[in-house]
Design brief:
The chain has 375 residues and is α/β, with parallel strands linked by helices. It is 31% helix and 22% strand.
Length: 375
């Protein structure tokens, strides 16, 4: 039976976070029960963009610091890596998120992924899985995630965080190859199967809620850190805290179907805080009815898309023409015309990559008519 630890952490103060992380490891059976001596550990934080820590989008520097401290105390070789969505500004991402500050302070090697290798497995749903060489060569991977809602997958946790092990623009093109949410979920599970992560940690000290996650949702004080060696079990327990069932979370549902971990909460040993003592039933989750059923033909789904799914709208007064959105768009639906970003909605697949990577909040998701109504 997999074990998921829930520990209270009331703030991002260094001593408070350090205490919580040490307690998490104790509850999971101790450091030696998770890692072997001298294993090379890859820490995969969430560095989606050049966001300041207080925005709640990326891994907080003090959670990274607490994890690295524990690994260093056991003399483990460490590398901290990710592949930010803003391809041309990776080092800026490391600087603004204060990740580089932590790495320099603790003398830990780290950077953004560049080299990749194709991974072949007859069990894979996806035919084009290329992952960071650093991730494939690591002895053990730790997914250091944030607790956030997601406009596409409804929840992003420890499993989804490993999507960042796919370098550069390749992540954006995966949206084209996996247009159905079920197919996208299969691809995320493929990545987890390939990498076999050793440990997952979810920072829910401040959790992001609402339909504008994972970059511009509202922050809530949840005040907990969760961790497990079983990333599916970890995500399932995290989702349970806010009332998201496995069937309502495409990635967890797919992982359970493929038996990658344990997806039945009755078969998970929750230690530390009890779920009922930290759950938030009023948490604003993404309405699953924003999904368009696959029973409809493509032309009908395109018509329904504007009514159900968030449509990217550009706020030209905020835009500084950095062209991040133009670079990241996998279907080339964006262009600069007469000094303004223009979008071809006939090409747009509503992947929201432009929305997630805009550093100036110059893109909003306009809710469709049907998305505004909830039963």
């Amino acid at each position: 039976m997999p074990r998921v630890a829930i520990v209270k952490c009331k703030s991002y103060g260094k001593s408070e976070v350090s205490r919580a992380f040490n307690e998490v490891f104790d509850l999971l059976g101790g450091f030696e029960s998770i890692f072997k001596k001298n294993e090379e550990v890859l820490v995969k934080p969430n560095l989606l963009g050049a966001n300041k820590p207080e925005e709640g989008t990326t891994t907080h520097p003090n959670t990274l610091r607490a994890l690295l401290k524990i690994l260093q105390e056991h003399e483990m070789p460490i590398y901290v890596g990710d592949s930010p969505g803003i391809v041309k500004a990776e080092e800026k991402v490391f600087r603004v998120t204060r990740t580089r500050e932590v790495l320099n302070e603790m003398k830990v090697d780290g950077g953004f992924f560049k080299e990749m290798e194709e991974v072949r497995n007859t069990e894979f749903f996806s035919k084009n899985i290329r992952l960071a060489k650093k991730a494939l060569e690591a002895d053990a991977i730790v997914s250091l995630a944030r607790f956030k809602t997601h406009s596409q997958t409804f929840f992003t946790g420890a499993m989804k965080n490993l999507f960042g092990c796919m370098p550069g623009k390749l992540k954006a093109y995966m949206h084209v190859e996996h247009l159905k949410i079920e197919d996208f979920a299969e691809m995320i599970v493929d990545i987890n199967v390939a990498l076999k992560p050793r440990l997952g940690i979810i920072d829910a000290v401040k959790a992001m809620e609402g339909p504008d996650g994972p970059t511009r949702g509202n922050l809530r004080n949840m005040g907990v850190i969760l961790a497990s060696r079983d990333l599916l079990a970890l995500d399932v327990v995290a989702q349970r805290l806010v009332g998201i069932s496995v069937d309502d979370a495409p990635i967890s549902k797919m992982a359970r179907r493929r038996k990658f971990g344990v997806g039945d909460i009755s078969k998970i040993d929750v230690v530390g805080e009890k779920i009922e003592n930290v759950e938030m039933p009023d948490f604003d989750v993404v309405d699953k009815r924003r999904q368009i059923p696959d029973i409809f033909p493509k032309f009908v789904k395109r018509i329904m898309a504007d009514s159900v799914i968030g449509k990217p709208i550009f706020l030209h007064g905020k835009c500084n023409l950095c062209r991040n959105c133009v670079e990241i768009c996998p279907v080339k639906a964006l262009n600069v015309v007469d000094g303004k970003i223009r979008i071809d909605y006939k090409k747009c697949i509503r992947c929201h990559c432009c929305f997630e990577t805009c550093p100036r909040a110059a893109i909003e998701l306009k809710k469709g008519i049907l998305a505004k109504f909830r039963s």
